[in-house]
Amino acid sequence: MRCLAALALVCLTLVCLPTALRAQAPEPLPEPLFDAAYCLANSGHDWLGLAHDASQLDLGYVIEPSPYRGEEQLYLVEYTNEAHSRGSVFVFLALGKESHRALRLEYKAAFRRSIDGSRRLELVDPPLGGIWTQEQLLSAIRKVGFETHTLSVADLLLPPPNPAQCDAAAGIE
């Protein structure tokens, strides 16, 4: 009886071990997310606040169709606290796919949840572009929600094999 119980335990372990190992393996970072973060980290501006000795970033993204044919808008959301109650949102105009992606930073804005009890999401310094642009930014932040990826700053500073072509619109500071 003991041998049968031991055999059952070994079989159960062999069946469950691959599932447990897959659950522990980190999910690969989506390429559009890495490309946008790489552009921000290596642009010459400290868009992501890397000068403050951050070792990891909490990032999410959403891709939406652009009003321009053949392009997409990539919204990169950086959360600066665990509660996801504040951070920054960056909007890129994206052209091309994967190894031939070109990203142009169009807008950036800081956001926070109001502390008046309503937990309303608001832009700290709304960018130029009007109410429609501001609503698009807020909508992207809501869509990302808590679906984020943790990215090591050290990994972000290493050049990828096929880096995206990065650019910023005039006046983005």
Structure commentary:
- This protein has 173 residues and is of the alpha+beta class.
- The protein has one domain (28-168).
- It has four helices and seven strands; from the N terminus they run ααβββββαβαβ.
- It has helices at 2-24, 31-41, 130-144, 153-157; strands spanning 56-65, 71-79, 86-95, 102-113, 121-123, 149-152, 165-168.
- Strands 1, 2, 3, 4, 5, 6 and 7 form a seven-stranded mixed beta sheet that branches.
- A hairpin with a 6-residue loop joins strand 3 and strand 4.
- The longest helix has 23 residues, at 2-24.
- The protein is globular and about 45 Å long.
- Mean pLDDT is 79; it is low at 3-25.
Task: Sum this structure up briefly.
With 173 residues, the protein is of the alpha+beta class.
Task: Explain the layout of strands and helices.
Elements: H1 2-24, H2 31-41, E1 56-65, E2 71-79, E3 86-95, E4 102-113, E5 121-123, H3 130-144, E6 149-152, H4 153-157, E7 165-168
Q: Quote the average pLDDT.
A: 79
Shape: globular
How many helices does DSSP assign?
4
Q: Topology as H/E string?
A: HHEEEEEHEHE
**Which stretches are poorly predicted, pLDDT < 50 over at least 5 residues?**
3-25
Largest sheet: 7 strands, mixed
Measured between the Cα atoms of the first and last residue, the distance is 73 Å
Count of discrete domains: 1
Calculate Rg over CA atoms. Answer: 21 Å
Task: Indicate the proportion of strand residues.
Answer: 25-35%
Q: What descriptive keywords fit this protein?
A:
alpha+beta, globular, disordered N terminus
